[in-house]
Amino acid sequence: MAQMLINGELVGTQSGTTITVRNPANGEVVGEVPRGTAAAVDAAVGAAAKAFPAWASMPATKRAQLMHEAARKMHEVVDEVAKLLSLEQGKPLAHAKLEASRVAENLEYFAGLADKLRGDYIPLDDPAKFGITIRRPVGVVAAITPWNFPLTLFANKLCPALAAGCTIVLKPASTTPLATQRAIEAINSAGFPAGVINTLHGSGSEIGDALVSHPRIHKVAFTGQTETGKRIMQLAAKNVTRVTLELGGSDAMIVADDADVRRATAAAAIGRFFNAGQACLAVKRIFVFEKVAEEFMTKFTDRALKEWKLGDQFAADTKMGPLHTEHQRAEVESQVADAVKRGARVLAGGKRPEGAEYAKGWYYPATVLADAPEDSRVATEEVFGPAVPVFIVKDLDEAIAKANSTVYGLGSSIFTKDMAKARRAAEQLEAGYTWVNDIQVAYDQLPFGGTKQSGFGKEHGIEALEGYLEKKSVVLASG
Ligand code: NAP
């Protein structure tokens, strides 16, 4: 059984109860983790608080060395961690390997930034005085992550936190704790002092409140559903704890009349069907100009039908594994059914695949819908699975207005050869990211985060570090 890492030790819980982790492809048991309790929360937070002063005052070059060593340790376990991730999450093994490798890359990126942090010199009116600003780590961080990209999303929090000098308590989703736990054990074996990195397992509804509202937590870094984010914000308010919230999205893609349609369909397919559509940054609504609509629908449907092979995570030709849970599949099915009932046409997919190989898993195929009403659920809600509505628009004004008619604001993209259109879209689309003629892929160097109900605060880039630091002003007067 996997355990929790608290104060440098691998531990279970006093209650002795466990959470069973199952493979979404066949329901088989993959492993178990202890079911954490409020006492475990207190122990983990206490350990992180005790470790904080020494970690925060350790020279940044030393912290960076440990992070580089952690990246080496992570590289050594990429295959083992990727296999666990595939088994517990359902994603194809090749994609899980990419995700596991990204943890090591993220450690390297932030290790490189750790000793580049600086303050400011600020002249004051009085010539006998001047001001400086120094940057201090915020303290103990609670990091809470979802099941869709468990490794990427814990690394997005752990790496800037460590570089800034914060200590951390990490709670992965209760359906995907195993790969995270194994990766953390490898990272911790680089030699971090006890208590700098801690893990907790358990259901968010059972231990989440105790963690988020713990008086010794100074920041909550959360990724998950918008509704959970709202709850976390309320809980954090109790102690005026700062939060960063990476929440849901319903990203629009605009395909203009001058677009390279082939390229746009490739980006739409990867953007919607990668990770079986269970991605925050994903093409969730497509707005195509009339002139290229038919060509787009034909080519995009073709890709959905031919290129996104459903199958077992470990089969070499699998592009999409099962959805993560029964609930997840039922939700996508009901969103598609709502659109179809109200007049949408199914161009691809739209029903469970047949065949014995799919009988035991939560499989759902790449699905393309046309003529979905604008107030149907696929248009107004986040669709967290491989289904996408395509809408026809007459011009850029209509496309931007419709793209912005959502509570979400995470990503967005436009395909056009006209720089004026690209610039307008970049300026007017209400989202944290706009890609022009490109696939929605987040870059380590670029700040990533949403607006509106997709949350606030940044991950990736130098900006991510700012979320783990506070600026303090100091006035120096001549003695
Ligand atoms: P979720 O249900 O909100 O769960 C996310 C995490 O929060 C899990 O660890 C969960 O624990 C925990 N949790 C649940 N209730 C809690 C509470 N009251 N207090 C503290 N923690 C609590 O989200 P999900 O369904 O796993 O993830 C899918 C969502 O995440 C989608 O909406 C997606 O768009 C969003 N997402 C956003 C980004 C981004 O960067 N913006 C990236 C990826 C995913 P349990 O697992 O134990 O319930």
Brief descriptors of the model:
single chain; alpha/beta; binds NADP nicotinamide-adenine-dinucleotide phosphate; Aldehyde Dehydrogenase, Chain A, domain 2; Aldehyde Dehydrogenase, Chain A, domain 1; six-stranded mixed sheet; seven-stranded mixed sheet; 20% strand; 479 residues
Please give a structural write-up.
By secondary structure, this protein is of the alpha/beta class. The protein folds into two domains: 4-247 and 454-477, Aldehyde Dehydrogenase, Chain A, domain 1, CATH 3.40.605; 251-443, Aldehyde Dehydrogenase, Chain A, domain 2 (3-Layer(aba) Sandwich), CATH 3.40.309.10. 40% of the residues lie in helices and 20% in strands. The protein is built from 15 helices and 20 strands. NADP nicotinamide-adenine-dinucleotide phosphate (NAP) binds next to helix 7 and helix 8.
Distance between the termini: 61 Å
Averaged pLDDT, please?
97
What amount of the residues lies in strands?
15-25%
Strand order of the largest sheet: 14-15-16-13-12-17-18
Query: Which small-molecule ligands are present, each listed once?
Result: NADP nicotinamide-adenine-dinucleotide phosphate
- Report low-confidence residues grouped into runs of 5 or more: none
Biggest β-sheet, characterized?
Answer: 7 strands, mixed
Category from helices, strands and their pairing: alpha/beta
Give the C-level CATH assignment of the largest domain. Answer: Alpha Beta
Any idea what the CATH superfamily of the largest domain is called?
Answer: Aldehyde Dehydrogenase, Chain A, domain 1
Number of separate structural domains: 2
**Helix count from the secondary structure assignment:** 15
CATH architecture of the largest domain: 3-Layer(aba) Sandwich
CATH topology annotation of the largest domain:
Aldehyde Dehydrogenase, Chain A, domain 1
How many beta-strand runs?
20
Proportion of helical residues: 40-55%
